[in-house]
Amino acid sequence: MENLLNLPIGIQSFSELRTRNMLYVDKTQPIHRLINTGKYYFLSRPRRFGKSLTLSTLRAIFEGKRELFKGLWIEDQWDWCQIHPVIHLSFSSIGYRELGLEQAIRQELMSQGKYFGVTYSQQVSIAVMFEELIQQLAQRDGKVVVLIDEYDKPLIDYLDDIPLARANQQVMKTFYSVIKDCDPYLQFLLITGVSKFSKVSIFSDLNHLFDLTFAREAVALTGYTQTELEHYFSPYMQEVGENLGLERPVLLEKMREWYNGYSWDGRTRVYNPFSILNFFRAGDFRNFWFETGTPTFLLKLLREQNLYKLDSLTVHERTFSSYDIEYLQAIPILFQAGYLTIKAKQEFGLYTLDYPNSEVRESLRGKVSRRPTPESVGRH
């Protein structure tokens, strides 16, 4: 079909998305609500679920780029004269594998300082550099917005090398330790990641960091609801339905079975954005999200803990906080990484976990069903 907006597969920049005639599912209303109801936030969501785009959207709002929001909900709901300097850090792109985490952060802070015209004191730690960057910006340009994406990447990448993960954990704890004392200089802060493990120790000084992971106002902040899917993707459905020979009701039901089902409250369910965008681009039902990367350490962990059946698991809410790099437990990692989701909330703090959809179920079953031999089990 002609005149369809381009599908933003892999696009994490709100500015690029809006200036290149790409489809944007309008999330500015829940984003606006976050800005107006709190100051310090943490959000955990699986990979490729819209976290980076959310931060990029927040950046554009706080930088006052009204032209990018034409036609969106927030356009006439925000004071666009309210502009703040934005420190936007993404731990997936700072080169910690090559440089080491501390040196990579130092290099990124130098780059940020150069961009903002900030000069640091000589021979100071990364924590002091971060503090000086925030303070100098606030004193010159007004209160600062801090957006940190994929905070846990330097941990997740080394879960098969615990000593290095532990060292990175300490670097991160030191780095974040200055945020609380910078409160007078901060307007807003949001930290995102895949997992919550180590959250308590890394952010031990940030006891006022509100966790959005299960919060009502964030259940549909990322991902696509059924209503959003049917509204924004209706023109694409017509083309794909014709090519596949499926009537709209049948197509919708099959899409729901394949890609829907993620939930953080047991009621609101959303589609994986990456899978949906790729589905409409490919015009066929395929395994998109799962094949983008399942860490081998996770498959090994499932086998070590003898977890081969993951359907309808009953867990206590304490399970969601069982994140310790020294004693990894598969279930909380599977949940945070998106391989399991909340199907229902029971009484007495109990939850039912299950695969979110067919895409994940069939793929993960195929990976873990290859039971190791008795000899290999003995070697664990």
Automatic annotation (TrEMBL):
Domain AAA-ATPase-like, which positions? 8-203
Q: Name the source's superkingdom.
A: Bacteria
Q: Which SUPFAM superfamilies match?
A: P-loop containing nucleoside triphosphate hydrolases
Q: Which PANTHER family match?
A: AAA-ATPASE-LIKE DOMAIN-CONTAINING PROTEIN, CONSERVED PROTEIN, WITH A WEAK D-GALACTARATE DEHYDRATASE/ALTRONATE HYDROLASE DOMAIN
Please give the name of this protein: AAA family ATPase
Task: Identify the species of origin.
Answer: Thiothrix litoralis
